[in-house]
Amino acid sequence: MGTPSSVRPLRADAQRNRDRLLAVARAAFARADDSVPLEGIAREAGVGIGTLYRHFPTREALVEAVYAAELDDLVADAAQLLEELDPEEAMRAWMRRYAGFAAAKRGMIDTLRAGWASGRITTSATRARMTSAVGAILAAGASAGVLRDDVDPGDVITMVLGVFVAVGGDGAGGSAAGRGAESAARTARLLDLIVDAVRAPRG
What we know:
- The chain is mainly alpha-helical.
- It has helices at residues 12-31, 38-45, 49-55, 59-84, 87-105, 109-118, 123-144, 153-168, 176-198.
């Protein structure tokens, strides 16, 4: 079996098929969860089920690839937002994108837990990448004088995760749509409070 460094890159058409399968799977998992039929994902991507299995031999492999792609996008968003917004607004926008990432992950959570338990997905590596993204925004904000320079980015991640746990597990009643809207609004309010906490004092 080849090592990762010896694996040949995919042909252009194979790479397009893989990218399309990932895009369709991401949309399908966001609409429902990761139990959607793989045949439907292959059909919507315009390929046969055999092509899907060549790229993703198991459902778990597809779910984990979707998770990795979404994590890559979220980490890259930090630099993109800093190019478009001032650091304070970049922090606010990034945390809301993180909330969207966390919400999408709920539909894959059972499969992801198996990946975490097996060691195929390492929570420490994920946490380190998130912390690095927040650290870049905090550093830019400190240089601009709009965010505090004494904040540990790991503490920010801990607070954000606390928001997700608190809002996701509050057990509120009402319809699913009503709970979803209420949870989204509450998440946004709590994330704004975190931004307030890391904002530099205004003299």
